[in-house]
Every structure is written in C-alpha cells, then in structure tokens.
Amino acid sequence: MASKREVEKQRKKSSIIDAAEQLFFSKGYEQATMDDLRAAAHLSKRTLYVYFTSKEQIYFEIMIRGYKKLIALLDEAPQTASVIERLRHMADTFYQFSKMYPQYFSAIFSYENRTTDFTQSVPDPSKEECYALGEVVLGKFTALLQQGKDEGVLQIDQDVTLTAMILWSSMSGVLRTAKLKKNYLENDHAISPESLINQAFVLMMRSIRNNSGGSLK
C-alpha cells in the first residue's frame, strides 16, 4: 500500500499534468513555456521542477494518458470475431478515438510525425513508458496480421512487422485526412470520413488478403 506521502506526490504530479493539458491544448505546445505551466498549476518554479524537468517530459506523460485510453478502446474488440472483423474494428476504433479524444489524438499524431520539436533530453521513465505503450498498439496490429497469415486468411510474403509498419503508416495518413479534412471531404467531394476510412481499409486488406479469405464488406 502506497504511503500517504507517495499518494500526495502522485496527486500533485497528476494535477500538474492536468494543468499542462489545458495549457498545451489551448495555447499550443510550442508556444507554452514552463513558466506558463508554473502559473497555471499555481506552483513555484522550484516545486514544478521537483516533479518535471522539462515540458518535453510532461508531453510524454500526456501521450501516456492518450495511449492508455486508446488501448482500453482497442481491448473492447470481440475476441471471437474473425481476423478481418477485428482488423476493421481496429481501424474504426482509431477514428472513434480521434473523435472522442481529439487532443490526445493530435498529441500522439504530432509526435509520431515530428511536427512537435523536442530539443531537450527526456528522463527515461516517461519516454520509455510512452514508447512501450505505442509498441503495445503496434503489437496488437502485428499480432492480428500474424494470426491472419497463420490461418491462411492473409497472404503476407514479407516480414509481418514490416507489413504492419507500412499499413500503419498508410492508415495514419488516412485517419489524419479524415480528421483534419472533414469539411473538405464532405462539402467538395460528398465523401464522409467514415466512407474514406472504410474504403481505405478495403484497399489495404485487398493487398494482403488471400483470395479465399472471405468478404471485406
């Protein structure tokens, strides 16, 4: 059982991350400073640095929260469904995550695409936990592809992890377009974000599906 001191330390740390979320999401990560965060969290600079050494470290903590929510959604997939159905559920879940938690989605996407500039070193625990959670997500996708290959549903002639990386990168681009270009898709081309994701999924699965693997609809 955690000591009273440890509980208070975790409570304080969580409250700082809460304040950082509001600050980063409203002002923007690049524009926000540690002094801004100190004021938002109502802390002295010395106290803030006891818990976090840089805003980069706090950004990783925010992504950790986002990854945990995403993984919880992915874990809701019915385990008795077919590989194709579970892959479709995964694609749909990513889009639902972007709608339910748009700020976490943006935080993770910005880091994965390096639109966020990290210039300082980040303590290993924060970075490593964030990376580990990202690998959990990729691992779920890779495991499904491996299962599909083993069952003969998917025809994957190259390394399964490499295939997962390629498909992951492709779907990330589609999700970004569906999320950021919603009005353009609907108003200029009469394409819903859901339709874009669905057709992208069909095209991607066709590239690796065994001809006898069943319907993608």
UniProtKB/TrEMBL annotation:
Domain of life: Bacteria
MF annotations from Gene Ontology: DNA-binding transcription factor activity; transcription cis-regulatory region binding
DNA-binding residue intervals: 33-52
Ranges for domain HTH tetR-type: 10-70
Database matches in PROSITE patterns: HTH_TETR_1, HTH_TETR_2
Signal peptide region: none
Stored Pfam families: TetR_N
GO biological process: negative regulation of DNA-templated transcription
Record's keyword annotation contains DNA-binding: yes
Keyword line: DNA-binding, Transcription, Transcription regulation
Protein name: Transcriptional regulator, TetR family
Organism: Sporolactobacillus inulinus
